[in-house]
């Protein structure tokens, strides 16, 4: 399953967009 990879990419993308938490 590529779920882990997909989640990892999504998280990286979100972090790159702007860590405004």
Summarize the topology.
Blueprint lengths: L2 H15 L4
Q: Give the fraction of residues assigned to helices.
A: over 70%
Strand content: under 5%
Shape: rod-shaped
Helical stretch tally: 1
The count of DSSP E runs of length 2 or more, i.e. the number of strands, is 0
Quick summary:
This protein has 21 residues and is mainly α. It has one helix at 3-17. The chain is rod-shaped.
Describe the structure.
It is a single chain. The protein has one helix at 3-17. It is 71% helix and 0% strand. By secondary structure, it is mainly α.
Q: Which structural traits does this protein have?
A:
1 helix; mainly alpha; about 20 residues
């Amino acid at each position: 399953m590529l779920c882990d990879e997909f989640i990892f990419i999504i998280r990286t993308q979100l972090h790159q967009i702007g860590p405004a938490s």
